[in-house]
Amino acid sequence: MGTSITMSNTNQHNASAASTKTPLPTPLKPRKSLGSFLVTPSVLILLVWMIVPLAMTIYFSLIRYNLLYPGDNELVWLENFEFFVTDDGFFAGISNTLILVGSVLVITVAMGVGISVLINSSFWGQGIVRVLLISPFFIMPTVSSLVWKNLIFHPVSGVLAAIWQFFGATPIDWFTTYPLLSIIIIVAWQWLPFAILLFVTALQSLDQEQQEAARLDGAGSWSIFYYLTLPHLARPIAVVVMIETIFLLSLFAEIFTTTGGGPGYETTNLAYLIYSQALLQFDVGMASAGGLIAVILANIAAFFLVRVIGKNLTDKP
Amino acid sequence: MAYLDIKQLRKAYNETEILKGIDLEINDQEFVVFVGPSGCGKTTLLRSIAGLEEVTSGQIVLDSTDITQLPPAKRDLAMVFQSYALYPHMSVKENMSFALKLAGIEKAVIEKKVKETAEILELGPLLERKPKDLSGGQRQRVAIGRAIVRNPKVFLFDEPLSNLDAALRIQMRLELAKLHKELKTTMIYVTHDQVEAMTLADKVVLLNQGKIEQIGSPLDLYTKPANKFVAGFLGMPRMSFLDGKIVSSGTEGIQVQLAAGENVSLPTRETSLSTGTPVSLGVRPEHVSISDVANGHLQARLEVSEHLGSDTYYYVKTPTNESITIRSDNQNKVNDNEAVGLQLDLTQCHLFEKEGNRIY
Ligand SMILES: Nc1ncnc2c1ncn2[C@@H]1O[C@H](COP(=O)(O)OP(=O)(O)OP(=O)(O)O)[C@@H](O)[C@H]1O
Ligand SMILES: [Mg+2]
Questions:
Q1: Residue B283: closest CA among B340, B234, B345
Q2: Residues whose beta carbon lies within 6 Å of some atom of ligand 1
Q3: In this structure, how many other beta carbons lie within 10 angstroms of the beta carbon of residue B56?
Q4: Is A45 within a domain?
Q5: Residue A11 counted as domain residue
Q6: Shortest CA distance from B104: residue in chain A
Q7: Residue A11 in contact with residue A250, Cβ under 8 Å?
Q8: Are B88 and A317 an interchain contact pair (Cβ–Cβ within 8 Å)?
Q9: B321 near B229, Cβ under 8 Å?
Q10: What is the b/e burial string over B217-253, where b = at least 16 CB atoms within 10 angstroms of the residue's CB?
Q11: Phi, psi (degrees; rounded to nearest 5) at A116
């Protein structure tokens, strides 16, 4: 049990540590030694915080350690990794993770930008609409997944089933027919408010006179959106992409409460695969190996994100 | 050709009327300056002309086409904003070519136009830079360049120099005057800086509380203000006003009894004024001089003096507690609180009736 928690911690820590590697403002020269001295305790704590679980995970990944077969935990070196990578679920896990993260990013960014631009102009009931748009973010993932599962997607009692029946169509059993799509819809619904929140805030700092100048220059709404609004939103889009990537790579609760990774491996992502190794098959060694692979993958993703997007963040507008 | 005719223009936000019936004609190639105190509606008037503000009633006619209801882009006007409003994500070149690109003009033509304009404004080496990498004066020039490339019928400027420091402002002022000579385009310019108004304008439009107080050449407004407001608004330091009463008026002039001193006689033939009419005598600082206590038109006491090097400003108070400002180019030392006599140049004084209109 403990292993799984520390693993997901390491995973997130590494990803966010990598994302803060972008150049920080350099402190004044003479203070440098004093400054590094003063930050030493916190850096040390942070290191211990990271290194202890990491070291333990590495250790577990190199030994045979199955809770069902207690006995000597002999050193097997990379055997766990080999089994994990050659497992049937591994390829599905990686591709599902990528599809999930990618689609949710595209949906939340595209719809987020669209909705934010629409609600940015003042209209009657603006306040209520904004609160409604933000509120899904405050609902616990397990709760919202259950609501989606039992009240919306359910082939008998779901709202969608009722609509389908109203038009005389046969209701769809979403989680059997389109399992991954269903999960993507649920997760996108949860993360859309986050994107909207960031975009709306950014839109409020968009200069009014620039838009007026563009109107005088002959720009219509579309040109203003394309040449002024979108470049202005580049930074919040980058933030949304980075943060969502970090969190979505370790997506778990939504899958656990709805499909349980199935049918087959169709909705199993890496986090769920590790969970099933550790707690369904009680193979701590293999789960640790999977965790480390996930950490490496997260770091690769973080590296590219920082490369592509980090520059955008540190550039002054 | 650009002949702009504004007829009975009104603009109200909710219930408050901001522009209260503006009538204005602007001729081709004219440099028109809107001045007035803060909040009088200069920006609103300019934005209404640009089409950024919907007017409540009235008409704006440009070269005999009614443009009142046209969208901004169709009006053939270009505006330079106070904040410059450059597009931050585009280079100087892209900023300047934006309008032409949207209009679907050929790349080669755009290139040529931008290059020409950059030459006029000395922006050549900066074309690839982003606005954030430019100084205030350079941004200002880009904003002007963005307007020039469009070759509009009328240029609109809203306080374009107010974000610049004093030295740069003077330089840009001269450059604007030069630019107007070169381009020979109609320009409308909003400012609250009198010096800009006096130096740049062919025609000054002085606004107050949403109404035009006076239209005319800068010197006309200075020497023949239509009323007390115009007289008091133009000129630094301001004109001083003294209360008085008409004693007699006839062919030889008007005799005015000043509350603060003796009778003065103004050389005017205005005769329709009845004796006893309360009036206000306006005199500019440069038309008062300090004399012996015994010799002046009135006596006063010096409160403060400011020595600027070239000029000295004396602020004095009459026994009736009216303030008078005197500008003098000699460096005579007068002590604070010393009693002085004041000599008025009566050919240069103005007389205003109680409602504010100028009599003389
Ligand atoms: N959107 C608006 N809603 C309500 N009132 C407005 C609005 N915009 C301007 N006003 C009012 O209109 C009046 C004129 O404003 P305007 O900006 O034209 O003044 P201005 O002459 O340009 O002043 P300044 O020299 O300070 O720029 C002001 O009293 C202002 O409060
Ligand atoms: Mg203004």
A1: B345
A2: B 13, 18, 36, 38-44, 192
A3: 14
A4: no
A5: no
A6: A218
A7: yes
A8: yes
A9: no
A10: ebeebbeebbbbbbbbbbbeeebbbbbbebeebeeeb
A11: -60, -45
Task: Give the number of other Cβ atoms within 10 Å of residue A211's Cβ.
Answer: 19
CB of A217 closer than 8 Å to CB of B73: yes
Strand ranges inside B127-202, DSSP E: 154-158, 186-190
- Burial string for A123-149 (b: 16+ CB within 10 Å, else e) reads eeeeeeeeeebeeebeeebeebbeebb
- Closest-CA residue, ligand 1 atom 17, reads B43
| B81 inside 8 A of chain A by CB | yes
Inter-chain residue contact B150 with A232, CB threshold 8 Å = no
Lateral strand order in the sheet of B77-80: B77-80, B154-158, B186-190, B31-35, B203-208, B211-216
Please indicate whether, in this complex, the C-beta atoms of B87 and A215 are within 8 angstroms of each other: no
CATH of the domain at A187: 1.10.3720.10
Angstrom distance (rounded) from CA A119 to CA A107: 18
Residue B85 near chain A (CB below 8 Å) = yes
User: How many separate domains does chain A show?
Assistant: 1
HSE toward the beta carbon, residue A234, CA cutoff 13 A? 17
Q: Looking at ligand 1, which residue's alpha carbon is closest to its atom 28?
A: B39
Within 8 A of A317 by CB-CB distance, chain B residues are 88-89, 132
B207 touches chain A (CB under 8 A): no
3-state secondary structure of B230: helix
Q: What is the gyration radius of the CA atoms in chain B, in angstroms?
A: 25
CA distance B160 to chain A (A): 13
Q: pLDDT tens digits for chain A (317 residues)? A: 333 333 344 444 444 444 444 555 555 555 668 888 888 999 899 989 888 888 888 888 888 787 777 777 777 777 778 777 777 778 888 888 889 999 999 999 999 999 999 888 878 888 888 888 888 888 888 888 888 888 888 878 888 878 888 887 777 878 788 888 889 999 999 999 999 999 999 998 888 899 999 999 988 889 999 999 999 998 899 889 888 888 888 888 888 888 877 787 788 888 888 888 777 777 788 888 888 888 888 888 888 877 777 666 666 54
Look up residue A171 and give its two tokens: 């209701």
The answer to whether B99 touches B87, Cβ cutoff 8 Å, is no
Indicate which residue's Cα is closest to atom 12 of ligand 1.
B18
CB contact under 8 A, B85 and A213: yes
The range of the structural domain enclosing residue A105 comes to 90-267
| Distance between first and last Cα of chain A | 47
Residue A108 lies in a domain: yes
In this structure, how many other beta carbons lie within 10 angstroms of the beta carbon of residue B276? 9
User: In residues, how long is chain B?
Assistant: 360
Q: Which of A207, A234, A316 sits opposite B85 (nearest CB)?
A: A207
CB contact under 8 A, B86 and A217: no
CA distance B270 to B266: 10
Ligand 1: centre distance to CA B45 (Å): 10
Asked whether residue A126 is assigned to any structural domain, the reply reads yes
The per-residue pLDDT for range A172-199, each reduced to its tens digit, is 878 788 888 889 999 999 999 999 999 9
Residue whose structure tokens are 């640790």: A288
Cβ-defined contact of A216 to B72 (cutoff 8 Å): yes
Distance B41 CA to ligand 1 centre (A): 6
Q: Indicate the SS3 state at residue B240.
A: strand
User: What are the structural domains of chain B?
Assistant: 4-233 (3.40.50.300), 240-353 (2.40.50.140)
CA pair distance B148, B219, nearest whole angstrom: 29
Nearest to A4 by CA among A264, A285, A305: A285
Q: How far, in Å, from the CA of B47 to the mean position of ligand 1?
A: 11
Say how many C-beta atoms besides its own lie within 10 A of residue B66's C-beta: 12
Per-residue pLDDT reduced to its tens digit, B196-226: 999 999 999 999 999 999 999 999 999 999 9
Distance (angstroms) between ligand 2 centre and the Cα of A296 equals 58
